[in-house]
Amino acid sequence: MDCDEVFNYWEPLHFLHFGWGKQTWEYAPQFALRSYGYLELHRVLIRITEVCGSPSRVQVFYSLRLALGIGCALSEVVFARAVARHVDRTTSNYLLLAMAGMAGMFHASGALLPSSFAMCLGMLGSSAAVSRPGTRSRVAWTVCAFAIAVVWGWPYSAVVALPFIVEEAVERFEFLLGSLAIGVSAVAVTAGAAMAIDFWYYGSWVLAGWNQIVYNVLGHGGDSTLYGTEPWYFYIKNGLLNANIIMALAMATLPLWLIWLALRVAGGSDAMDHWRLLYRVMPFYVTLIVFSLQPHKEERFLSIVYPHMCFNAAVSLSLLRPLHATRPRLGYVVLCLAGVVGALRMAALVRYYGAPASAFLLLPHGPQSAVCMADDWYRFPSSFFLPDNYRLQFVASSFDGHLPGDFAPLSVSGSTRGSTAMARGDFNSGNRWESSHAVLPNVTREACDYFVAVEYPDRSPMREGEWEIVECVPILDAERTPLLARVVYLPHLVARYWPWKQQWGQMCVYEKSMTSSISSPPDPKDIVR
Q1: What SS3 string covers 106-134?
Q2: Where do the domains of the chain lie?
Q3: Which residue from 373, 476, 402, 389 is spatially nearest to 381, judged by alpha carbons?
Q4: CA distances (Å), 422 to each of 36, 198, 211, 410, 433, in order?
Q5: Tens digits of residue pLDDT in 364-394
Q6: Tag placement on the chain: N or C end, fewer CB within 10 Å?
Q7: How far apart are CA 412 and CA 419, in angstroms?
Q8: Cα–Cα distance, 355 to 340 (Å, whole number)
Q9: pLDDT at position 272, please?
Q10: How far, in whole angstroms, is CA 335 from its chain's centroid?
Q11: 236 and 297 in contact (C-beta within 8 Å)?
């Protein structure tokens, strides 16, 4: 999980259900960039797990992730069945194999992110869109799925629907007004429901998706580049990392389509079905181009077209079938190889970067305590991993951006709605430091009962006598480990003889020493250098 998933979704969800959690500026009512409607959908799943028993918060966390993964898998099956029915059965088999072995799909399927939600709804919408134009049910199912994805999920996922809109305008122009009416009605109903929920929590009428577009695209009230920029080829590089051969095949689909079109026209064959195939493969290209033109890029943004990336790869293999007619299983062999690499990538994500969740489970249960983090604040796995009565506290460090604050305690606001609708002055949209969201290193000894920090061999240890190690778990030092030693999981024997060596550190839980007379917690400068 990245820090955006934790602090923008897991933490607010934890607050809604358990009454406490971290709050980002996007949830401040004066900005209202996040919709509570999306979180309420997942609270239903939490209630279902609680009906089945009285699980711990960690069990709730993993149960919810399991439910999200199952929902994504069902969407994949629906998508593949539609491709088998309306495109080609072999292409459908390729598609299923590609999605099953793609590390990006694995990572996105269980994520509590609107982009992952939009990815699943996009598969359902595309399942209807792959059928031949000419029926209102096709338009209705496609439009409704994408409307929910855009309004309740991620507004930028509308880009995926652009080829479908163009196809409807070209193929069924005489029915365009009817299609527009269906689209407007679907958006109005879904937006109305989302706005009603957000009105309850924010205390005013807002459309969170539109607020996101105003901030990130139109640049009013802020600038998304404050959170980093990447070169134009970022998504291509990232796609090769998370999809390997599948990304390469997806990029090759359009050139292969052009070659096949030329051959069909030259041979006097009916090319109409081939033209329709163009609409089916364009969502991946359109999204890749549009997102690559934006200066601010993040890995998860491209997840909305991961299924379409797999579809394009499947189409490429289908178009290449005549070239390997004597080896009909070659396409499956290629995808199995991609799946093996993908599985090693999945294992690497868990093995190399799974330390935060394991470390926080090492915290001993006890009375009300404060768990502190400094420069490693972004590794926090969410309050679902804190023992009862424990709270996370940030310590000022070298990070000078805008750290999350806390939702107003229910004892102060009187209710959940009172906390979410409370206008406060400690949030800003400019990524500026807010001193009230962190304690100073020289505060009294009582500020921190436990400290969680990542230690590498070249880092100074914690001050002796002040803090005692509870336990540590290994974590890969990504900055000092070469790319070829960290992109996929390397078993111990392989890593031992691999020419590029891995560098490891450890994520440790420290407990305040009861014998120390020092009156301050550790200086972050001594923790991270």
Answers
A1: HHHHCCCCHHHHHHHHHHHHHHHHCCCCC
A2: 32-352, 368-421+429-527
A3: 373
A4: 15, 13, 18, 11, 21
A5: 888 888 999 998 999 999 999 999 889 999 9
A6: C
A7: 8
A8: 24
A9: 54
A10: 24
A11: no
